[in-house]
Sequence to fold (177 residues):
Amino acid sequence: MQPPFYILCAHSTSVPALPNPALVHTTVQYHYADDDPLAIVPHTGEQVLVLDYDSSDSNTSALPTVQSISPSVAVTNVRDEEAPGAAAAAADEGDLTRNDRMFIIETTAALDRFAPTKCPTRLLTAARPMDGSMGERKPAHAVLAQFKQRNAVLRRALLYPSSETPTPPVKPFATAE
Fold:
């Protein structure tokens, strides 16, 4: 079976004020076992996700494993969904063997306070509010909501490779200021 034609990325943050993640098209670069491993090392400001897809695997229903080799991004889940309109587009182009499924790779910002701040990928994590140890106090319910959301993201990330059924995305808690 062919791999899905579409691979999208959904990036979520731990900042409750930001909207739900949007789907983004990724740049796909094929890398084979005999290729130079240094070719996929991320450059400054670049996020690299490695999707391990084995087309020779007899278990075609198994999702691939995705890992981030960038210090600012962590993978939390991979979903396999139907790509609306993909079958019709493939038929129009005469490619009847194209897989009409899509992989959606869910990512989140890694909470690395020591990563370089000049990197554009740090904009979302640097924009989060300061915690009490940095001088600014937040209301207790806001701290608790932030803790619950981060805990849910961590739980999803830790269960990701072995989870049979993906959990629904974490919804930000509403906080009254």
Remarks:
- The chain has a mean pLDDT of 71.
- The helical segments are 86-93, 123-126, 140-159.
- Residues 92 and 170 are 38 Å apart (CA to CA).
- Residues 140-159 form the longest helix (20 residues).
